[in-house]
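Example record for the data management plan.
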Amino acid sequence: MSYPISPALRHCSKLNIPDLPLSSLSPSASAPTPTAPIEEEEAAPAAAEKTLFTLTLKSFDAAAKPKVIKEIKQMLGLSLVESKKFVESAPKMMKEGVPKEESEKIVEAMKALGAVVVSD
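Corresponding structural encoding:
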């Protein structure tokens, strides 16, 4: 049985899909199991040192509230109203997945303004 071909597709002769060997799709082509335990042992020490942190605004000095709002506005890219609501709802998570160096800089900058930020 033949299906009619759309006039728009008559000029197309190839779908441009690369041919894949069927052996790469089979489940038996997975990596050998003896190497897996070795990789897990090497990965264990690397997991011990945390590299990404979550920053949480715990509290702030009432006198420093305008400065903290401005810094949060600049850091998180929020509007002034959103930043004010964010600061007033402390404790609240600021950022997630922040590298160690950047998190230390943010904690120090916020501490200098009178805010308490904790990196977990």
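Summary line stored alongside the record: The chain has a mean pLDDT of 78.
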